[in-house]
Predict the structure.
Amino acid sequence: MKNIELKIEGMHCTGCSMRLEKVLNNLNGIQKASVNFETGKANIEFDEKKTSIEDIKLAIEDAGFKGE
């Protein structure tokens, strides 16, 4: 398992962070994702054999946000 922390841009409220967290946790290969609106960051634990950082960033963009 690998852990990453991404800065998330485009969140306007805690509802945004909860929605993004749900999207991330439903991705194949994600063990656990937590999104914090106040810090603007997402902590993600994932299996590198099942998904990549690029795939995670694409899912974040598809949800309407930007992950760096």
